[in-house]
UniProtKB/TrEMBL annotation:
This is P-loop guanosine triphosphatase YjiA. Belongs to the SIMIBI class G3E GTPase family. ZNG1 subfamily. Zinc chaperone that directly transfers zinc cofactor to target proteins, thereby activating them. Zinc is transferred from the CXCC motif in the GTPase domain to the zinc binding site in target proteins in a process requiring GTP hydrolysis. InterPro entries: CobW-likC_sf, CobW-like_C, CobW/HypB/UreG_nucleotide-bd, P-loop_NTPase, Zinc-reg_GTPase_activator.
Length: 311
């Protein structure tokens, strides 16, 4: 079984720890292990986490994008040896970290096989950006934003309407607005944007509830009974991607009908990798598509995907 990794990046003071604390306070039934670089242990009651007190690991004395990469990999290996093993790992980077280097390490085939990188979320501070518009030209800040699958705008309540508009306009020049979200009590509006459920069957089609904030999202599922054409599948996903926030599931392709693959689309990043999850009898593909409410044309999406599985 694989354990997905969520990487949380952003400048010092942007609100990364607030996001991680929100995930740990409300883990959605998951056992979440958190690695925190350049910070002390997160002050969260272990009883709320459903984890032992050492579920939060601090990596100190450096930045995991450079000198601590070896420590990071050893710590990930140690977490995988725990019993019970975590269902997900959240890594909070230092504000001085360039996540591009960490992403490259996590995408190493050996590392990815055990701890696949699921989502990169970068937290930005609306108040800081309003006070320091020069940050939009800062190389490290831009790299942190560029690495993100999703951008979380924190502290929006500390800016007025005009400042908020300028911040959003500046972000829109570097990140598609559909991938940028306002903080909801310090967290993304739905955990479905962070956790793909890698290694598990996709959830049944449903609205992302009961959270009121989650009413802004909708999902649908699609299945196929015969292997899928890789070329037609890629073409279908390319046409659907501009309206999707996530897509995830298991697909068997015509070239290798006995080798199920895990497909994930998060933000603008798509991956297709082998999976140990066996195919279900009579089912060659099963996907879940997630979009903002009103953006998902279900019949058109189903028709495109059906075409990928057609003769």
């Amino acid at each position: 079984m694989t354990v997905p990794v969520v990487l949380v990046a952003g400048f010092l003071g942007a609100g990364k720890t607030t996001l991680v604390n929100a995930l740990l306070r409300d883990p959605g039934g998951r056992r979440i292990a958190a690695l925190v670089n350049d910070f002390g242990a997160i002050d969260v009651d272990a009883a709320l986490l459903g984890l032992s007190a050492d579920g939060v690991v601090s990596l100190r004395n450096g930045c995991i994008c450079c000198s601590l990469q070896g420590d990071l990999m050893r710590t990930l290996s140690g977490l995988l040896r725990r019993r019970p093993a975590p269902d997900a790992i959240v890594i909070e980077t230092s504000g001085a970290a360039d996540p591009a280097e960490i992403v490259r390490s996590l995408l190493d085939p050996v590392v990815y096989a055990a701890t696949p990188l699921d989502t990169v979320v970068t937290v930005v501070d609306a108040r800081h950006l309003a006070d320091r518009p020069d940050l939009f030209d800062d190389a490290l800040w831009r790299s942190q934003l560029a690495a993100a699958d999703f951008c979380l705008v924190a502290k929006s309540d500390l800016v007025d309407g005009a400042e908020r508009a300028r911040v959003r306009a500046g972000l829109a020049r570097q990140k598609p607005p559909r991938l940028t979200f306002e903080a909801v009590r310090g967290a993304l509006p739905s955990p479905a944007l962070l956790f793909s459920g890698a290694g598990h069957a996709p959830a049944a089609p449903r609205g992302l509830r009961p959270s009121a904030a989650a009413e802004r999202f909708e999902s649908m599922s699609w299945t196929a009974s015969r292997p899928v054409s890789l070329a037609r599948f890629q073409s279908a996903i390319a046409r659907l991607a501009p309206d999707l926030l996530r897509a995830k599931g298991f697909v068997t392709f015509e070239r290798e009908p006995d080798r199920p693959m895990l497909f994930q689309l998060v933000g603008t990043r798509a991956t297709i990798v082998p999976t140990g999850v066996p195919a279900q009898a009579g089912v060659s593909a099963r996907l879940v598509l997630i979009a903002e409410a009103g953006r998902l044309e279900r019949r058109a999406a189903a028709a495109l995907l059906d075409g990928a599985a057609g003769p």
